[in-house]
Amino acid sequence: MATRDQDIIAVIKEQIERFGAAVTITNVGTVIEVGDGIARIHGLGEAAYNELLQFPHDITGLALNLEEDNVGAVILGDCSKIKEGDEVKATGRVIEIPVGDALIGRVVDPLGRPLDGKGPIKAGKTRPVERVAPDVTKRSPVDTPVLTGIKAIDSMIPIGRGQRELIIGDRFTGKSAIVLDSIIAQKGQNLICIYVAIGQKTSKVAQAIATLEKFGAMEYTIIVAADSSDPAPLQYIAPYAGCAIGEEFMEQGKDALILYDDLYKHAWAYRQLSLLLRRPPGREAYPGDIFYLHSRLLERAAKLSKEQGGGSLTALPIIETQLGDISAYIPTNVISITDGQIYLEPDLFNAGIRPAINVGLSVSRVGGSAQRKAMRQVAGRLRLELAQFRELEAFAKFGSEELDKATRDQLERGRRITEILKQPMQTPMSLGKQASILYAVTNGYLDDVPVEKVIPWEENFHRFMETNHPEIEKKIDTEYEIKPETENLLKTAITEFKQGSTF
Question: Is the model's pTM score more than 0.70?
Answer without folding.
Answer: yes
